[in-house]
Automatic annotation (TrEMBL), chains A, B:
The lineage of its organism: Bacteria, Bacillati, Actinomycetota, Actinomycetes, Micromonosporales. Belongs to the carbohydrate kinase PfkB family. GO terms for cellular component: cytosol. It comes from Actinocatenispora rupis. The keyword Translocase does not apply. This is Sugar kinase.
Amino acid sequence: MILTVTLNAALDVTYRVDELRPQQTHRVSSVVTRAGGKGVNVAAVLTQIREPVVATGLVGGPTGEQIRHRLAAARIADSFVPVAADSRRTLVVADRTGATGFWEPGPPVTAEEWSAFVARFRGLATVSRAVVLSGSLPAGVPADAYAELVTIARELAVPSIVDAEGTALAAALDARPDVVKPNAHELASVTGGTAPDTVTEVLAAAEALRTRGAGAVVASRGADGLVAATPDGAYRAAPPAAVTGNPTGAGDAAVAALARGLAYRTGWPATLTDAVALSAAAVAAPEAGQVDGREYDRLRKIITVETVTE
Amino acid sequence: MILTVTLNAALDVTYRVDELRPQQTHRVSSVVTRAGGKGVNVAAVLTQIREPVVATGLVGGPTGEQIRHRLAAARIADSFVPVAADSRRTLVVADRTGATGFWEPGPPVTAEEWSAFVARFRGLATVSRAVVLSGSLPAGVPADAYAELVTIARELAVPSIVDAEGTALAAALDARPDVVKPNAHELASVTGGTAPDTVTEVLAAAEALRTRGAGAVVASRGADGLVAATPDGAYRAAPPAAVTGNPTGAGDAAVAALARGLAYRTGWPATLTDAVALSAAAVAAPEAGQVDGREYDRLRKIITVETVTE
């Protein structure tokens, strides 16, 4: 199985209103809730493509209970560790124009709760083919949390993927994760400077992260697909045409494919093809954590991967 | 004791953000939750002025559990009846400019749940000195719900106050509640036409509601205080100067005072003085359901009530 870690899991709530007008009162016509957080989205995608997966992380309070109910409803195997504080919500207010987001702060985590989580992680990782560490860290979790978990996975000879940014990602690199999957903005959060734009710029930033410890760096470039700096060389993979839809969760779908590639030691070209196809199939599906199965089957036959000579 | 009824209870949530900008994502710096709904606010005020009170109504699901926790934390006696569906939240996003509100729809209520509530109400009303029926009706509750409850109270010789609007208020009038407390907008929701503005216009609308069945009509006029059409004559009561602060909950504080006046059969001038003072003391307190005790003590000594000759 694949293990996903979501330390800052959330209840994702969507309010539909006619038109958002500041300083006015709105009647919400519908309220939709789902379990969220990047690692949960990865687990949702793997569950849909029938890849055995267990979702762990930290949840607490009444919001944590609601997250667990939603995981059960989506048939995602749940091995979350309880914390005392209430889990966060993310609220999206959707109107005719677009979406307005409100991110609650995550629950504070105590040292004892973190220790309990590390013990749980060690046990689950022992029986995993790959571990995925995704998203931000709640208050109270050490800044080098991902480094600690990557080190445990390495001791157990289990490959690891980190999808994070800023200090959480930078600290993780010290423990030499097998793969990291930053977007351009997240690359810049570690290398400094402005976000890289061209393939050459992205590959240079990716190589900088490899120098700092990452085994491979798979950089996501939105509708332009993926660029990968790996021990076997550099690659570029892109869908034949831009897919329209909801880009939320596209990065998480790519991570799901990368985790499966790591778990079965698939070569880079096949793994990257799968990652681009699954990512585009997530864009084509209406909700984060969902993939359009037809689009996935169609795309993975026609995506091409090219070697990039630096 | 006084009994308050909140059929559409809510978890009132306040998000603080720097500046609300549509189509952007915001980090929420603080999340504050409290039990809400007009009847709950009345119970909170009565609890603060040490008047024995029990809050009943309908709550359900995980949000209902959170409402009950907040009631317990505020030491408000809770006799809510459970429903299967999840209670609603009201969300206020507060920024530097002001407040933006999002009202979730209430939970649907089944016929069996409504019957269970009516039975609970009858039992509680038997031992009450006054009953307060406040706020909107959730889906599934009959449109004449307040008329049914007022009729039960009348059979038990317990006086009743209704604070509602539109069809819920109009239907309640048929059962002859002892007092209704509309604001200008709520008066117009029954009489039709534009909201009455001057004292003469408000009194005319109030008399129209008395003709339709209300024993007395106490109309709230914001910072201008109250105008009352009663069997003993018409009155006007106003604070000596406008109180600055948060007007949310000022009407509920006035209802709390009216309920106490009914419970102890205090005469109209004293009851109206108390209602204006408690309402202004609620404006002076930062949160809905709270009153500023010092302001209350100061104001109730200096408010004057005048008889209005029509």
